[in-house]
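Training component of the fellowship. As part of building independent skills, the fellow (R.M.) carried out the full modelling exercise for a liganded target. The chosen ligand was adenosine-5'-triphosphate. The inputs are recorded below so that the supervisory panel can assess the work.
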Amino acid sequence: MSGVDQAAPGGTTTARGASPTAVPLAGATAPAGARGGREAYDSGRRWEFLYFAVRNKKLLLGLGVEIIFVLAAIIGPYFAPYPAKEFVAAAALHPSSQHLLGTTYFGQDVFSLLLDSLRESYLVGFLGAAFAGLIGLAIGFVAGWRGGWLDEVLQTLTYIVVMIPSLVLLIVIGAYLKSHSAFFEGVFIGVTTWPWVARAVRAQTFTLRQRDFVDLARLSGKRGPAIVLKDIAPNMASYILLAFILLFGSSMLIAVNYDFLGLGPTNGISLGDMLNLAELWSGLQLHMWWWFIPPGAVMTLMVAALLVANVGLDEVFNPKLRET
Amino acid sequence: MSLSVENLRIAYRTLRGDVQAVDGVTFAVADREIMGLAGESGCGKSTLGNSLIFIEGRMKHVGGTVELDGKALPISDDRAMNHHRMRDVSIIPQYAMSALNPTKKVGTLAHDLLKSRGMKLAKVLPEFRRRVALVGLPENVLEMYPFELSGGMRQRATMVISTLLNPSLLIADEVTSALDVSNQRAVGELLTEFRDLGYVKSMIVITHDLSILAQIADTIMVMYAGKLTEKASASTMIDKPLHPYTQALLSSLPEVGVRYEDRELTGIPGRPPSLLSPPPGCRFRERCPFAYDKCVEDPPFMELLPGHQVACWKAADDVAGGAGREHNEASATPSGGAGDASPERGPSLGARAGKGAE
Amino acid sequence: MTRYFARKLGLYVLAFWAGVTIDWAIPRLMPGNPIAAYVDRFALNSQGPWTALYKLFDKAFGYNLPLWDQYWHYWDNLFHGNLGISLYAFPEKVTTMIAQAAPYTLALLVPAILLSYVLGNRIGAMAARRKVLDNTVLPLGYLFQAMPYAWLALAAAFYLAAVEHWFPVEGGYAAGLASGFTWAYISSLLYHWFLPFLTVFLVSFGGWSIGMRNLVIYELETDYARYLRALGARGRLVRRYAYRNAVLPQLSGLALQLGTVIGGNIVTEVVFNYPGLGHLIYTAATDQDYALLQGIFIFIIVGVLVANFVIDIVYIWVDPRTRLSMQGAAA
Ligand SMILES: Nc1ncnc2c1ncn2[C@@H]1O[C@H](COP(=O)(O)OP(=O)(O)OP(=O)(O)O)[C@@H](O)[C@H]1O
Ligand code: SF4
Ligand SMILES: [Mg+2]
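Fellow's submitted model of the complex:
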């Protein structure tokens, strides 16, 4: 239930690994409603979450920072001082009032380029998280609900996907497939990172399946898929949200790896592409730090904000973690 | 007097304010006494029990004192308390089935625990083995991991470990509630046996199951919403309860093994008040069929009859004015009014109550 | 016991089979014709020699055979330790090239993984109970965890190497140094090794420490920990138990983590031009050196499987539950 195989740096353990072991408890214990506030019952619980959410500093900080970056990604390009990809000035200018972050080796304005590349990084991150989440949920639900041989098969599949390092696979594919889109990158990330979601969802479905309310639903004649979607999934809502946030962050980091190696989408520009170009054109040797430090720093902040928001949300959902 | 508790108040710190889970309780437990503690879920039984040994993270000792064997028990001083834990006070916690570290063998756990307390397992090993056999666990249980044991076995193992140092006071929190009926009775008998053999001097047995208390307890104490409502000898409590809440508890308990938890209190709808900001006056007022104007004041916990303490205005009136003066209709209820001999009590409960009070 | 191992072994075999099959299938599934692309590189300007060369290579690579035969040959070669010949470094054998690069990668990965795991666990467990440490380790951990490997490597290379000259910017050892068991050579190796190692180490370290902190906090809240404290056990014993139990999920996390670290290692090797497998597979891809590419892929998969095997063994050793449930139930 812990761990992710993503050929990405990012969530080394938390974004993937061990923490989900602790995290899922939010989803697993909350439905029982047994511990902590006995006063908290269904409709009340939503308000309780909101109550704690607006008071959680980590959540507010993480979310606040993330919203700033998302806004910059959406409307930033319209306010960029220069057209991002055009060669607007002399090459390799130091940062100045004219060019806040200097210019590239080719004379592009780094700040404008940075604003422009946020979008693709977010897009790929979102696609990757969405696909990984959907596949993971589907496989986890089916394996956990049906059990038996189907469970065995799906577990084996999960295991195999974990065993094959995704970056290595993409390098091999990339050597043959010369051009592809951001959509492809997102799907590829999704297809290679779902296992840890599937494992956690499977384990929780397994436990929830044995609860009374599921028996009740079964007795009332509901069919399996309906029970999974209407009775089991809502009980894991908090976990699914937390997992999605982690996936989002890790997908963006994986994409940086890919883009840095020139395996990213052929058109367009992302934060990883900026690092790639800076490296290819000796930005390092030329000491053009303004070319490669800002994109990575921005990515770090984007992902760190997600991680922090995730910890905050976890505290909101999981009363045990709340500080008093 | 083995244990005496004076006006003890324990609260939980929460983000919304303090939850007064134990709100000024005063009682005593004599040497060799088994005192039963009953009450609806959430009324503060475990909090009371836990506070006598370990005030953890969110709990707060608001006030009151505890004395054990004539010496003050420093319950709010975690460090000073350490010396008394397990030696003078011990506990079989409500979560006994998960109280053992799953990755350590039972014997290793006991060894590590004693070593950490500066003692050697080897010294008590023969006794340990004897007790393991006494509670009906296999001999090699010391070499087994908790996950190899059933829930009931784990509970018994916990029972043996907790009482290894022959404590003066043992708090047994819901030791029977997760068991089937025959096991419940067996564990109940084990508890008395532990007392009779001198493994523990006195005991507070917290439970949902009044019939178990009828079987083993000498005295019974009932709590409601953080306060004591009634305390008397087990037979008095079962045959002649004075507090309307106790009467309701008993009338809603028809058979052995059925926990009042599982049923609505007959004729008394509603739930206990929130402990976050409890209403003034008698806490049972909202649900009490006998509530009258005086009940807006907090009824004191007073000794109305010898050895019989009650916190209820009506009961006080009844006792003062002789049986059945004003609320005569009450004696029509199965539990009867004050001073009633009530021969129509259910035979099963009555019989066991007699045994418990021996 | 045997059943458990048989099961695990079955999984390994299956994963290996899947890896090899994917490796074999990719060139055949991808759009475009790898042989044509290869022949194109000779920049022949007339059609005649082009076709001749094409036929020659098509045959040499066996692409003219029926698919089943190709698949069969592939396995056959594999079992004879024959991964083919590099096109780019012709006529060097792929196996030789891998054997030359692998030590560098292992020298980065093994210490980075082990040290980050051990230190991360220790520091994370300490952070779980010391406020001061928690307030420093936690934010730092999240920061490292949120850093792209490529960027951390670039930043380290820029500041520590390019600007301050404390370390070399690239390479595995000083150019022109003869390899051998000499102090000059070994110190040069270490000197070049440090920055790439640091990069891979730091990112993993962040993850392990945060994970451990959360797990230990969780373990300290469990019933068994409460029980021990209620019976007056010292904090040290409770923490020892909590640590020991928290290590178990971290250990299974380690197995799941390998792919990520390997990916990060590749990127890091590329930044530092470090002559390991990551750098080799990257150049093989850019040079379209297919045999080399596929050979490294297989090699890495085998490496992951071996590492998993080791972790499995350790897990059985530290977790009594697997040890005892091995006779019967599922893995
Ligand atoms: N950790 C906690 N934080 C906040 N409130 C708590 C906590 N534990 C218990 N409470 C509250 O304190 C009150 C008393 O709880 P306690 O566990 O003592 O009840 P109990 O009588 O033992 O119930 P049960 O019969 O279900 O075991 C309850 O209202 C509960 O909501
Ligand atoms: S004091 Fe009043 S309200 Fe409370 S139990 Fe007695 S009669 Fe009922
Ligand atoms: Mg309780």
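The panel noted the following from the submitted structure. Residues 52-322 of chain A form a domain with the MetI-like fold fold (CATH 1.10.3720.10). Chain A touches chain C through 75 residues (CB under 8 Å).
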